[in-house]
Design goal:
The complex is a heterodimer.
Chain A (H helix, E strand, L loop, with lengths): L6 H17 L2 H9 L6 H9 L18 H14 L5 H7 L13 E2 L1 E2 L2 E3 L6 E2 L11 E3 L8 E3 L10 H28 L1 E2 L2 E2 L4 H27 L2 H30 L6 H12 L5 H12 L5
Parallel strand pairs in A: 1-4
Antiparallel strand pairs in A: 2-3, 3-6, 5-6, 7-8
Chain B lengths: L6 H17 L12 H18 L4 H4 L2 H13 L9 H14 L2 H13 L4 E4 L15 E5 L2 E8 L10 E7 L13 E7 L5 E6 L8 E12 L3 E2 L5 H10 E2 L5 H21 L5 H31 L2 E2 H26 L9 H9 L9 H12 L7
Parallel strand pairs in B: 1-4
Antiparallel strand pairs in B: 2-3, 3-7, 4-5, 5-8, 6-7, 9-10
Helix pairs in contact in B: 1-4, 4-8, 5-6, 5-7, 8-9, 8-10, 9-10, 10-11, 10-12
Classes of the chains: A alpha+beta, B alpha+beta.
Chain lengths: 297, 380
């Protein structure tokens, strides 16, 4: 047993982090916010060139030939950076939809009552011809994710791999909001000391770390085993970690956290939207409960 | 990232399973929880069986993964717990192995591994709990002895122990001597004159803990491990690195209990309440992931030789809370039986209350995590 990242996996994670720092820095993030989440096609192609979409495509088909454990590392970084776009749908379409693997086309798909980034999408999958009849663009709560509301719930289930990759993005948000909270707590001085010196603030941050480590472990384990029950656990813990960490980050940042200027609201809103993908909290808990009556581990 | 066990690890597991199946039926009846000499005899008999089979010193002789497998399999097979041998095997022994002289190691380690000698821990004091370094039990040098006076609390197995790993103050706290600098680690023989042990009854009614009063107890200077006034560091050497295996058996046991609670809910009809079902599902995610986190920490220890104690803090914070939630949920499922002390889960619910307090309260653990991992400033 060796449940740790391999040297290659660590290098892959670092490579993506560096790429995103170069190609999607804070200035680009805020530009994307101002553009209402409209996609930067050059960036999309750069992601394609870096193998972001072709990661799990076999090498014989021009892909990178890696698996879900590597994919969750990539999507954790995407979540951390708040990278916009239907990344998961395009990743899943690699090899199925021409140009998806290379980042030449943007692929989206409906889930539940919504479809994301419809305006930017070249191709829509998992949708019948009349799926968009009566669909209306809404004023999205998340400034980085344009949402179109369908007139009826899509009959297509959210793919299991998409559930896991969404959970990986949520871990990225949980980790990043912890970083933002710690940074603020070390810099902000009140009552003559950094506020991070107060136990009340320390304990919020410590619990944020506990959530990150727990959710990340659940996501990595689900990526390695591929079982439905571990995926449900990953979904449950990652959604909770992302939303609660973003909330606690907002709290630690105080008044600054409530401004448009601070990035924390972008994470919170994104975490809310991501939590709406795939099975609901209740459905995940029911699946996990049912599993208890089967093989008792 | 790989969760599969190697052929060597599987072979270790198979041999262990076969051995357990062979020897467990021959164990004597479990003694009454209040029969301390009986419990000591039972626990040391088990330790001797482990010793004879070559499983006594896995801490040093096996890989962290083999140690994990050992703890997982013994729990699954319903083998005895480490019990009265806990301090000797998991703290005093490793401390002596790391910091003792060759003579001290020769004197104390083999009897621990054979189950011949039992150790207890004299660290906490009535006025020194979370703030352990403020301990006041005093040791004054008199020739080749220390003369020790003071009191200790939460000393488990004190009634039946042969030795006590004792922290004493050898230099008073002054503006020039911070509290951590004046502490010394001693091995105190429990039959020395001047030791009074008084059982401490917990809210669960059990008496595994004791108070210990020391009145001019003479301890040979030769029983000091490490230098005088260096006892804090000597103690922390063992506490600060662990193999991630501290809670392996307990997590396995909690997962089994959770499945039993689910089956009980199904039987008695509480399963039909979606709130109960969903809470059980949530706990399944919780304990499944705590098991994966254990495997993660053990894999890390396998690579690096140890998990920093702060990694253990993250695990303990989550686990101690989850354990309390598990038994609260069990009580909800049990209904009227939850008020019956003869039901195991009722007693386990009571003892789960200690988990967020013992071995560093959750509040202290959060300070440790915030300061040592996240780098937040020390303060109030």
């Amino acid at each position: 047993m060796d449940f740790q990242l391999t040297a290659d996996q660590r290098a892959l994670r670092q490579g993506v982090r560096d790429l995103l720092a170069r190609r999607f820095d804070r200035e680009a993030l805020r530009a994307a916010v101002d553009a209402g989440g409209e996609l930067d096609r050059d960036l999309w192609r750069a992601l394609g060139e870096a193998g972001f979409f072709a990661l799990r495509l076999p090498e014989a088909e021009g892909g990178v030939g890696l698996g879900l454990p590597e994919a969750v590392l990539l999507f954790e970084e995407a979540g951390r950076a708040l990278l916009p776009g239907p990344l998961i749908d395009t990743h899943l379409a690699a090899g199925e939809v021409k140009g998806a693997a290379e980042g030449e086309v943007v692929v989206t798909a409906p889930y539940g009552h919504f479809v994301e980034h419809l305006g930017d999408a070249d191709v829509i999958v998992r949708a019948d011809k009349d799926a968009l009849n009566g669909a209306m663009k809404v004023r999205s709560v998340d400034p980085l994710t344009p949402l179109t509301r369908l007139s009826r719930r899509t009959p297509y289930p959210y793919p299991p791999e998409a559930v896991l990759l969404t959970a990986a993005e949520q871990v990225g948000t949980a980790a990043r909001t912890l970083d933002l909270a710690v940074q603020h707590a070390c810099e902000r001085v009140q009552f003559g000391q950094p506020v991070g010196g107060f136990q009340a603030v320390k304990h919020l941050c410590a619990q944020m770390l506990v959530r990150v480590e727990t959710a990340r472990t659940a996501v990595y384990a689900a990526a390695v085993t591929g079982t439905a029950v571990e995926r449900a656990a990953a979904k449950l813990l990652a959604d909770e970690a992302a939303v609660r960490n973003a909330r606690d980050c907002l709290q630690v940042c105080g008044g600054m956290g409530f401004t448009w200027e601070a990035d924390v609201h972008l994470h919170l809103k994104r975490a809310w939207v991501r939590a709406g993908r795939g099975p609901s909290k209740a459905e995940a808990e029911e699946e996990l409960a049912a599993a208890l009556l089967g093989d008792p581990a | 990232m790989d969760l599969a066990y190697t052929p060597q690890e599987e072979e270790f597991r198979t041999e262990l399973r076969e051995w357990l199946a062979r020897v467990l039926p021959g164990l004597p009846e479990r003694p009454d929880p209040l029969d301390w000499p009986g419990r000591r005899a039972y626990d040391t008999t088990w330790q001797r069986m482990l010793y004879d089979a070559g499983y006594a010193d896995l801490q040093r002789e096996a890989t962290p993964t083999q140690h994990l497998i050992f703890l997982e399999e013994t729990e699954r097979a319903g083998a005895p717990y480490v019990g009265a041998n806990f301090v000797g095997l998991l703290h005093a022994g490793p401390t002596i192995a790391a910091e003792g002289t060759p003579e001290q190691q020769e004197r104390w380690l083999p009897p621990i591994l054979r189950g011949d000698e039992v150790w207890c821990q004299g660290f906490s004091e009535p006025e020194a709990g979370s703030d352990l370094a403020s301990l006041r039990t005093k040791a004054v040098r008199d020739g080749d002895h220390y003369v020790v006076t003071g009191s200790k609390i939460w000393t488990s197995h004190a009634e039946v122990a042969d030795w006590c790993e004792l922290l004493v103050r050898t230099t008073p706290v002054t503006p020039d001597t911070p509290k951590h600098k004046g502490i010394t680690w001693l091995a105190m023989p429990m039959d020395a004159p001047g030791i009074t042990v008084r059982p401490l009854r917990t809210l669960a009614g059990s008496t595994e803990f004791a108070e210990m009063f020391l009145d001019e107890v003479r301890v040979p200077v030769a029983n000091r491990v490490g230098a005088e006034n260096d006892g804090w560091r000597v103690t922390m050497v063992t506490l600060s690195f662990e193999r991630g295996t501290a809670f392996v058996g307990e997590v396995v046991a909690c997962r089994r209990t959770l499945a039993e609670v689910a089956r009980e809910a199904r039987t008695n009809g509480t399963w039909d309440d979606p709130a109960v079902r969903r809470q059980l599902g949530r706990l399944n995610a919780e304990f499944m992931t705590l098991w994966r986190l254990t495997q993660w920490n053990v894999s890390e220890a396998q690579k690096t030789g140890g998990v920093p104690g702060v990694g253990g803090s993250v695990f303990k914070l989550r686990y101690s809370h989850a354990r309390q939630e598990l038994y609260d949920t069990a009580a909800e499922v049990l209904g009227p039986d939850a008020f019956d002390l003869d039901h195991d889960w009722t007693l386990d619910r009571l003892s789960s209350l200690s988990y967020t307090i013992a071995a560093g309260t959750s509040q202290i653990q959060q300070n440790i995590v915030a300061e040592r991992i996240l780098g937040l400033p020390k303060g109030r």
